[in-house]
Task: structure prediction
Amino acid sequence: MFLTVLTKALRNLMLPGILRIFLMCMLVYILSWGILSWGISALVSSHIGTAGTHGFMMRLLAGGGGMMVAWFFFPLLYPILISFFDDKMADIIERQDYPQLPPAKGPFWPTLLNDVSFSSKAIGLNTLCLPLCIIPPLYTAVYYGLNGYLLGTQFFRIVAGRRATLVEAEELQKKSHHSVMLIGVAISFFSTIPVLNLAAPLVGTAAMLHLFHALRGTKQLEVLPPQ
Result:
């Protein structure tokens, strides 16, 4: 099921209207990542009091380190980023692939506040895992495993909240927790690869939408090729 929904999600990126959302998401992504990088670098630099050439080099290293930290921590802000676009994107995909569905109702998940809460907790957990950097293979496994679970759960509930109660969403998630986890790992992995990281939150949202409808038994419209 994982590969099926991922393939559908990639195909959905070509739908009319999705490109505009992607460009808007990309702009917000770049600006947000730049601000986060600058903030981390400025925070570190403010505690470096060395003057002269040595001080310049230390600040240069702080700037590079800030960008690297932001690179790995920024995906944890994806739920906040995608909360501005997910409903519009889901509507476009559902009109194309599930036209028989009525309009979605408001989400049970109070999106922005819960997304901020999620990101804060996720950043805290990832910070606790930073000492594992001394063992790169272990840190890599923990990073993708932990964030795969966190992002998978959050993305699924964001999508499910448009058409299901919290109880039903949790039951569906348990029913296919392996697929939810794998999609989360895919989001986490793509987010660390240049260029692909720009599309990662959109692909994750689309994949979770198809997974949700598959678990609910919603029939997808099949467009047959001309005879």
User: Anything to note?
Assistant: Residues 18-45 form the longest helix (28 residues). Residues 104 and 163 are 6 Å apart (CA to CA).
